[in-house]
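Before the break, one more example. Copy the sequence into your notebook; we will annotate it together after we see the structure.
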Amino acid sequence: MGMSGGGGRKRRGGGFSEINVTPLVDVMLVLLVVFMVTAPLLTAGLRVELPNVAAEEAPTKDTKLVVTVTKEEKILFGEDDATADIEGVLASNARVQKEKELYIRADKNARYGAVARVVAAARSAGVEGLNLLVEPEIEPEGDPKAGGAARPGGAAP
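Here is what the structure looks like once it is written out:
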């Protein structure tokens, strides 16, 4: 009564003669499916908080070339409401076509889609210079960077 302990396979040199790759392939396919399912979910739930901008006030050439986006998603070109057809308004405006420069002033609570629509309309109208206008941060009066020194009791110099 002898026991054979090799399952019918003969070993040479103490190692297996074949490698079973089926479990490796199974694990890799499961990982691939997991990453394919979770990758879109990771980007959809991202919350982006933009930093405050400390910028100097840039002079605008003319207020007629300013596009304003309100938080209610109204788009104003100068003083005129252009929400319905900003693409056509920018494409047909002679000054925009001549100067190829536009200033965009958007409310900080405006939706990104409304601002992106204005940028896309400007690009399709041939605008090469897009400028985003921001409100400059106001320095406190006692801040040395603002040029004013704090005076006790609010006394004038």
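The first strand starts at residue 66 and ends at 69. The CA atoms of residues 9 and 15 lie 11 Å apart. Try to locate both features in your own notes.
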